[in-house]
Amino acid sequence: MKTCRRNLHQFSGSQCKECQKIWKKLNSNKEWKKLNPDKRKIINKISSSLWRKKNTDKCNFSSSKRRANKINAGLNLTENQSNLINLLYQKASKLTLETGIRHHVHHIIPLKEFSHIFSGLHVPWNLEILTEEEHIEAHRKLREKYKQPQPIR
Question: CB of 61 within 8 A of CB of 85?
Answer without folding.
Answer: yes
